[in-house]
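Slide 14.
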Amino acid sequence: MNAVADRIVNIITGKFVLDAETDAVITATTRFSDLEFDSLVLLELSVIVEQEFGARIDEKEMADADSVAGVVALIQERQAA
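Slide 15: predicted structure.
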């Protein structure tokens, strides 16, 4: 994983309540739907991503990305623009 992906994984594991088994295996390809993230979690994650990386990603885009890798791609796209 790259530094952005590592940071997002750290945010997820540090900020959101996950069971210990799931927490141990979060990777760039772990799907948000598998973590049972609802719209409020995705909204909060989008706010954190904007604060941390300066990339605005709305809740729907976050849901469509559905993984750390998907969010990293959106961040890189926004930062390149």
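Speaker note: The chain has a mean pLDDT of 89.
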